[in-house]
Specification:
By secondary structure, this protein is α/β, with parallel strands linked by helices. It has 3 domains: about 100 residues, Alpha-Beta Plaits (2-Layer Sandwich); about 110 residues, Rhodanese-like domain (Oxidized Rhodanese, domain 1), CATH 3.40.250; about 60 residues, no CATH class. It is about 30% helix and about 20% strand. A 5-stranded mixed β-sheet has the order 4-1-3-2-5, covered by helices on one side. A 4-stranded parallel β-sheet has the order 6-11-10-7. Helix 4 packs across helix 8 and helix 6 packs parallel to helix 7. The protein is globular.
Length: about 350
């Protein structure tokens, strides 16, 4: 069996569109010891391919982090397969709140140094010494305490479209950026109760351990993340204290939790919270764009990129070969978000 995708994107999209069954988008993670991630990767790819699972999975010696879609008719086979693997038995599964079944077009399983890049190389840091887990209802109730400090462990482009009321929103592009900032800038809260949250829980698991390592005494984390919180408060008929959209790392780019639109189009500043990637593949910057600007700029983040997409395809390909994407992104990010570096934290007060 071939242990990788062999089709181009267009073929994969057509295959997905032709499916007549529903898919369930689900995420899960577990910090476990995987002795040989490459061997595990090949066996896992084979097992999931047999039941037509699509998605993106990261493996490392420290564990597994997965976002996938499963055919509904194979759901029982999928859970049985997970339970057949000793260290994945009874895996907590976070099912998407909003799901069109088109979240992924292929199955990708990658072996990495860590399942969440944290930038830490301190041998004294114990990632297993995590904070206290709170279920969705416990977290919801603790948010009523005015003395707790709520911290969003996600990136700025995630919290920009949705976050918990009164949360501290670190102005960072990556998780690995946020941990040093925690150590440097949040010392005033060491004696407070700290509530951490992220999308599904995997980042909070490591962040809570880091908080404790840095001397914070009362550290709590939302078990199951925003995904589980949204499902729980909805089932109980409670008013969500998470406002707006939950950003997700698949083709959906977001699932709506409440009807509130708390972000703005990065080009015209009209209320909007729809993320897109710049149509210029040389740039591919992730940004927020309203429908009017999408038409005006043809899905691009700037006039410069709009000019690029009208160049002959061969010219665009040659330009991409000689252009470092990060440089292109940095140039346009400064135009779209001129206040990005003016503050290290923002308080999300609704």
């Amino acid at each position: 069996m071939t242990l990788r995708n062999i089709y181009d994107k267009e073929t994969l999209r057509k295959k997905l569109e032709a499916e007549t069954f529903k898919r369930i988008t689900v995420s899960f993670y577990r910090y476990i010891k995987i002795e040989d991630p490459n061997e595990f990767r090949n066996l896992f790819f084979e097992g999931l391919s047999k039941i037509n699972v699509l998605g993106r999975i990261y493996l490392a010696n420290e564990g597994i982090n997965a976002q996938i879609s499963v055919p509904d008719y194979n759901w029982e086979k999928f859970t049985d397969y997970l339970n057949s693997i000793s260290n994945l038995v009874n895996m907590p599964l976070k099912i998407a709140v909003e799901d069109d079944g088109k979240s992924f077009i292929k199955l990708t399983i990658k072996v990495r140094d860590k399942i969440v890049a944290d930038g830490l190389n301190d041998p004294n840091f114990d990632a297993s010494n995590v904070g206290t887990h709170l279920d969705a209802l416990q977290f919801h109730e603790k948010l009523n305490d005015p003395n707790v400090v709520v911290i969003d462990m996600r990136n700025h482009y995630e919290s920009e479209v949705g976050h918990f009321e009164n949360a501290i929103l670190p102005n960072v592009d990556t998780f690995r950026e946020s941990l040093p900032i925690i150590a440097d800038d949040l010392n005033e809260f060491k004696d407070k109760e700290i509530l951490l949250y992220c999308t599904g829980g995997v980042r909070c698991e490591k962040a809570s351990a880091y908080f404790k390592y840095k001397g914070y005494q009362n550290v709590y984390q939302l078990h199951g993340g925003i995904i589980e919180y949204a499902r729980k408060v909805k089932s109980l008929g409670l008013n969500s204290k998470f406002i707006g959209k939950n950003f997700v790392f698949d083709n959906r780019l977001g699932e709506r939790i409440t009807e509130d639109v708390i972000a703005e189009c990065h080009q015209c500043n009209s209320p909007n919270d729809n993320h897109t990637n710049c149509a210029n593949q040389e740039c591919h910057l992730l940004f927020i764009q309203c429908e009017n600007c999408a038409q005006k700029y043809e899905g691009c983040c700037s006039q410069e990129c709009q000019e690029v997409i009208h160049l002959p395809l061969e010219t665009q390909i040659e330009r991409r070969k000689g252009k470092i994407k990060s440089e292109f992104k940095a140039m346009h990010k400064s135009k779209l978000r001129p206040n990005l570096k003016e503050m290290r934290f923002e308080k999300g007060i609704m």
